[in-house]
Specification:
The complex is a heterodimer of chains A (447) and B (483). The radius of gyration of chain A is 25 Å and the shape is globular. Chain A has helices at 8-18, 48-62, 80-86, 89-92, 104-121, 133-147, 162-172, 218-227, 315-318, 331-368, 393-402, 432-445, and strands at residues 66-67, 125-126, 153-157, 178-182, 203-208, 231-236, 257-261, 277-281, 294-298, 304-308, 373-375, 384-389, 405-406, 409-410, 421-425. Helix content of chain A is 35%, strand content 14%. Chain B has helices at residues 44-55, 78-84, 87-91, 102-119, 131-148, 166-173, 191-197, 220-229, 262-265, 324-362, 383-389, 393-402, 430-449, 451-455, 468-473, and strands spanning 123-125, 156-160, 177-181, 202-208, 233-238, 257-260, 280-282, 294-298, 301-305, 366-367, 378-381, 409-410, 419-422. The chains are: A alpha/beta (447), B alpha/beta (483).
């Protein structure tokens, strides 16, 4: 019996103690007409050796590719120590730290995470994580609406990740909140602050870099939002923040809320998850932030320790009046991210950001020399950008795939009006030889 | 000591990032960060030591019995993690073309089919990333269903008072008013209260079965009839599915939509608070609203199902494919257990719970619903102990830590005073349960003989009892260098 330790003798003794003659008797309160139980589609069990064979065969079927896709999930080097420590049973198989005295490991780690994340984003406080970047943005929208006394409208640039926008609409859609799209300048690939003339909004969402990898004029956008009595919500890439101005320092007063996808901080691409979302804010919004928050306090002897705090905001206390229905965070992912940030440190993370930028610049400069390739936008970018191709993008990508290269994302799949436009990214994981190889195959495919 | 206190300016790990700066002249000065972030400057060895030591301050399933009620803290097989982390799976970009992920998608499709079978539902979406998100999606579908029929009058969701806090919080996030109904003396939902609550305003009922009181809703068929006749739909909160897996299917109980907590019933790790994963199952009438993406198999090819094929879908609830790696772990788990193993889950979880309940009752503990069978969990109440001695459920919980056991869930469900919700899970041996009973007996004796020992517990943890009030009043959420 896999993972059932009971011997026949144990079972007999246990039933005798209960006073039942069989295990089946223990289900006698379930109406008999409901009992079905036949599981016809569940195959017979496999041994660990057999399931290992199956999972390896399927993994080999998928194989390995040189990846130049970004679009919200980025390949970075992950130190071996990150997942070796993260998957220690004490982190892997514990639960939400309700019993603080028996969970100081997780609690202290989360406090350290909050400290790192608040500093990285330039904010006062961070929560202990959300599900992913998209749901973190949805929660930020809800938070802005709760805090803004008069407006339930949100200004959402088209340069925000298109799937994030869909998720936001799905989650806040039943709460009478208007999401108003803000068009971008198709030459610059970003929002033009001078074009803004909107009023009566609770918040402006500001992506940095935006979905095209382009740098938005965050100082002007933040100041404009504040001049109109709106909150500024920054959606940022955490690796970029080792190099770029953090949202907390945008413009005169800084953005009010910062959210984003935590995956670049030591989380593998993993076909899409699990990742984690981060959320940080200024002190004045702290009681509106959703999710778990860890605080430092003292024990009976005055020694410092850590507990879940501000729980009065949460569903298990406030039920229908909670700030969100959220219960879990992405604890294990945050464990990995905290160890990752410790191993990289401020300089290491900055080097990763710099080299990711420089590699993408190098890739783009080489690709531009190929006839039939030009930049889609004139603005500076971080580690990803859009290119116009003279041939259909799908055809080019398909030829590259046959050479073992995933050459980027066809932007038309998300922006139907953007024909023959490719989104491409080269992080620090790509060598000069990788980039050269990629460029040569692009040249072949575009002939 | 915090990781920041191990740091020294200029210390770096040269193996982990490029040593020298790269050219960033392509980024105008105005966009560049001026002051470096407060990340620790520590060696790789310091980092490994620090976090290894921190891990040792945690209780976990791998180190202690962890009978946290309603959380299903069963053994997480190591193979599930090892095989989900094969380099091809973790290296794959979520937007990589489908033909480079056929092996991965085959696992997801198999899992969908298996979950359909064990729940008796018509369709499964693997998208939700946690139980609370599964609930949100389920209630969104209920709303979408009524609205698609032009029925905009259904503004209420009914929730029993024993429900998890996520149920009412979810209903409110979906724009519904919450109507709470009472529990009767036997621990079932009060049928008269339900009858009085339903009407043309009823959108649906959210029910956990077996309930958080650790008992099976004996009148579930009648409840299903009452709600359906009023035009409402039934939501099954799968938090306690472990108790009935392979015995009863939610689809057969009349539920229209369910969520399954894979981190409970399918043994994916709890990870110190996540990631969870909560696929939703739907009945035929809710199929048009199912969230995307999910996997289809046609003409020998696995593909993502998108808005094009499900135009009425309530949409996407994550940037990519939910918590994909958690789904792989659950898949490995079901394949290891197989059909017979699936049936054994509920059987041995129930055997363990009823045995522990019988033994604790013999030891002198008061059981909240003594005439009922335990499901996979049950409630002990210290109401009388507290009246006589002042010792609370929390005191006893903390004293259990001293004896090497994680505490059961305390003060939930809210309607039983001074309660401990105890869920042993099927992977624990009789010998572990006996040791737990011994510890509980010792504490009962201590309550009489040395009440202060219990009142001031814990004594053997890295820290003594922590001050929650100070934590909330004098907020300290981030370390500052001047601290």
């Amino acid at each position: 019996m896999p993972f059932i330790p009971h011997t026949q003798e144990d079972i007999t003794e246990m039933l005798a103690s209960i006073g039942a003659d069989s295990i089946e008797t223990l289900f006698d309160e379930i109406p008999s007409d409901l009992k079905s139980g036949q599981l016809t589609k569940v195959p017979p069990g496999l041994s660990e050796m057999e399931i290992t064979r199956l999972m390896m065969e399927r993994a080999n079927q998928d194989g390995f590719y040189q990846n130049f896709i970004g679009a919200g999930a980025y390949e970075h080097h992950i130190p071996a120590a990150v997942w070796q420590i993260t998957t220690r049973g004490e982190f892997y198989s514990s639960y939400t730290p309700y019993q603080a005295e028996a969970s100081q490991g997780t609690l202290q780690l989360l406090y350290e995470y909050q400290t790192m994340m608040a500093s990285l984003t330039g904010m006062d406080v961070s929560n202990a994580s959300m599900y992913d970047g998209a749901t973190a943005l949805a929660e930020a929208v809800l938070m802005a609406v709760r805090s803004h006394k008069t407006s339930r409208r949100i200004l959402m640039p088209e340069t925000v990740h298109p799937v994030y926008k869909k998720v936001v609409r799905a989650i806040v859609g039943n709460q009478k909140i208007d999401i108003v799209e803000l068009p971008f300048c198709t030459e610059a690939g970003r929002i033009l602050p001078e074009s803004l003339d909107n009023d009566d909004f609770a918040a402006l969402v500001i992506p940095q870099p935006n979905f095209f990898g382009v740098l938005e004029q965050v100082d002007e956008l933040t100041d404009w939002a504040h001049s109109k009595n709106m909150f500024a919500i920054g959606v940022v890439n955490p690796v970029s923040l080792a190099l770029l101005t953090p949202p907390g320092e945008w413009g005169e007063k800084g953005a009010d809320i910062a959210v984003g996808e935590g995956q670049p901080l030591g989380i593998p691409l993993s076909s899409g998850g699990p990742y984690f979302g981060f959320m940080a804010c200024k002190n004045n919004l702290i009681r509106q932030i959703p999710g778990r928050i860890i605080g430092r306090t003292n024990d009976l002897d005055g020694k410092p320790g850590f507990v879940l705090t501000l729980q009065a905001r949460e569903q298990h206390i406030r039920r229908s009046k909670a700030t969100s229905n959220i219960c879990t965070n992405q604890g294990l992912m945050v464990t990995a991210a905290t160890i990752f940030m410790s191993l990289l440190g401020p300089t290491g993370l900055r080097r990763v950001a710099e080299h990711s930028h420089a590699n993408t610049v190098s890739l783009v400069e080489k690709l531009e020399k190929i006839p039939g390739v030009e930049r889609a936008f004139s603005s500076p970018f971080f580690h990803e950008t859009a290119l116009k191709l003279a041939k259909p993008v799908d055809k080019v990508l398909s030829e590259l795939k046959n050479k073992g290269i995933l050459g980027g994302l066809n932007l038309q799949t998300l922006y139907p009006e953007m024909e023959n436009t490719l989104l491409i990214c080269a992080t620090e994981t790509k060598t000069a030889a990788d980039i050269q190889n990629c460029v040569e195959h692009f040249a072949q495919a575009l002939k | 000591m915090l990781i920041f206190e191990h740091a020294r300016p200029g210390r770096r790990n040269y193996s982990q990032a490029p040593e020298n700066a790269a050219d960033t002249s392509g980024i105008p000065e105005q966009y560049l960060r001026k002051k470096q972030p407060l990340l620790p400057e520590v060696s790789e060895m310091d980092t490994v030591r620090h976090y290894t030591r921190l891990s040792q301050k945690n209780f976990s399933i791998d180190t202690e019995f962890y009978p946290l009620g309603s959380c299903t803290m069963k053994y997480n097989p190591r193979a599930c993690n090892a095989l989900a982390m094969l380099p091809q799976y973790i290296g794959r970009h979520p937007l990589a073309p489908e033909d480079t992920g056929q092996g991965f998608m085959a696992c997801l499709h198999d899992l969908q089919e298996i979950l359909k079978d064990v729940t008796g539902m018509a369709g499964i979406s693997l998208a939700p990333m946690a139980g609370a998100q599964g609930e949100l999606i389920g209630v969104m579908m209920i709303r979408a269903y009524h609205e698609s029929r032009g029925d905009f009058e259904r503004t209420e969701i009914i929730v029993p008072d024993a429900a998890h806090g996520t149920n009412p919080a979810t209903a409110v996030m979906c724009g519904f008013k919450v109507v709470e109904i009472a529990t009767d003396k036997k621990g079932n939902v009060d049928i008269d209260a339900l009858k009085a609550a339903v009407g043309p305003q009823t959108a649906g009922l959210m029910l956990t079965n077996p309930s958080t009181l650790g008992v099976f809703e004996e009148n579930v068929t009648e409840m299903s009839r009452i709600v359906h006749e009023a035009g409402g739909l039934l939501y099954y909160d799968g938090a306690n599915l472990n108790a009935v897996l392979g015995k009863v299917k939610p689809g057969d109980m009349g539920f229209d939509v369910i969520h399954i907590n894979l981190h409970k019933t399918f043994s994916t790790p709890h990870g110190g608070g996540g990631p969870g994963s909560a696929p939703v199952g739907v009945s035929k009438r809710l199929l048009p609203f199912i969230p995307i993406p999910f996997v289809k198999f046609e003409n020998g090819q696995y593909d993502w199902v998108t808005e094009k094929e499900v135009p009425q879908t309530i949409g996407r609830l994550s940037a990519h494919m939910g918590n994909a790696g958690v789904l792989l772990r659950a898949y490995v788990y079901v394949r290891l257990l197989g059909r017979d193993g699936m049936h054994r889950i509920a059987e041995f979880a129930t055997l363990n719970a009823n045995y522990l309940m019988a033994e604790l009752k013999k030891a002198g503990f008061e059981i909240a619903y003594p005439t009922r069978r335990a499901s996979h969990e049950f409630i002990v109440t210290l109401k009388n102990v507290k009246e006589k001695t002042g010792i609370t459920a929390m005191n006893l919980a903390k004293r259990l830590l001293d004896k090497g056991f994680h505490a059961p869930t305390t003060y939930f469900p809210i309607l039983v005073p001074e309660c401990l919700l105890i869920e042993p899970a099927e992977t624990e041996s009789k010998q572990t349960l006996d040791a737990f009973v011994t510890a509980m007996k010792e504490i009962l004796a201590e309550i009489q003989e040395q009440p202060d020992l219990v009142k001031n517990a814990p004594h053997t943890m890295p820290l003594r009892k922590l001050d929650d009030v100070k934590a909330a009043r004098e907020l300290d959420l981030c370390w500052k260098p001047e601290d």
